[in-house]
Amino acid sequence: xxxxxxxxxxxxxxxxxxxxxxxxxxxxxxxxxxxxxxxxxxxxxxxxxxxxxxxxxxxxxxxxxxxxxxxxxxxxxxxxxxxxxxxxxxxxxxxxxxxxxxxxxxxxxxxxxxxxxxxxxxxxxxxxxxxxxxxxxxxxxxxxxxxxxxxxxxxxxxxxxxxxxxxxxxxxxxxxxxxxxxxxxxxxxxxxxxxxxxxxxxxxxxxxxxxxxxxxxxxxxxxxxxxxxxxxxxxxxxxxxxxxxxxxxxxxxxxxxxxxxxxxxxxxxxxxxxxxxxxxxxxxxxxxxxxxxxxxxxxxxxxxxxxxxxxxxxxxxxxxxxxxxxxxxxxxxxxxxxxxxxxxxxxxxxxxxxxxxxx
Length: 359
Ligand SMILES: CC(C)(COP(=O)(O)OP(=O)(O)OC[C@H]1O[C@@H](n2cnc3c(N)ncnc32)[C@H](O)[C@@H]1OP(=O)(O)O)[C@@H](O)C(=O)NCCC(=O)NCCS
Fold this sequence. Notes:
13 strands; 10 helices; alpha+beta; eight-stranded mixed sheet; about 350 residues; binds coenzyme A; Aminopeptidase
């Protein structure tokens, strides 16, 4: 069995192998073909004779930790052919992934796991984080200065809106530790693969990306998809001080999700709003899932406006430190203290890693 980085000529075989997972040949291709940071040497494979039998992929990302742009290796697309399972093949690839990430200068690593014990063998540790469940966003009440008809809900248009959205993202998400940093190329790629879960084989994942205009100017935005059967606001942001526009955006999404009448003016093609209704529109009574714990001021305003916000804790989120000495230099601490500090930051409820950045 060969366990090594993939060769360029093996790209299609890697995709053929992964297509057996979700029975969806397009899903993984989006990452391999559209991610400007995809590299064959970060795509690890196990080959038995003529067959590729297992793969692990390292996604090259950058996150914010205390204002430092930290190279982060995301682990994903971990898959072994059924008949080769339980023979240690993925384990060998995970060990190679750690060596490769250290060699390539990644300082921390993130993965989303269902099998916590499997990954903990290779040094990843589960970190709790909070998802927010917004029950009844449609019922968000308008304070006297909040007039729904004042806001226009429009559909994001890349050519027209990306510069403004990237600026809101940089200013809003950039305030929070752990958030992924996106340059222009990463933004364009992110628009192709955010959402992550194929809804049905062959359908791929799509997002409903809306902007909320206040007097023509974008004041808030939200990106929504269906994720494991729920309406997931996988990223949002607002201009400093534009809490009302953010509340208006949540209210609008709640109205769509619950099938209520829409109290906002709209522009653009809103067919993808159907993502909020799912297949079974009666199942969830308009719940929205997102992250809000990072922003207590926003949470307070949502609750004050009459929409309960509950937290659900999840520990499928696993981190590993790869380069303690580099973190030590950045944070001016000992390597042990720097690693502990990084873990405290990963699990701090004010930190944020958007679902839109999943890999
Ligand atoms: C998860 C997955 C990649 C594991 O691949 P694998 O090649 O079977 O992995 P390994 O053989 O290295 O390890 C699997 C288990 O077999 C055990 N194992 C390893 N070598 C073994 C051997 N010689 N004999 C018996 N068991 C062995 C491992 O300890 C591990 O046990 P654990 O699951 O209790 O931790 C594979 O099950 C898969 O492709 N699943 C579907 C896709 C998926 O779920 N991906 C991960 C998403 S988080």
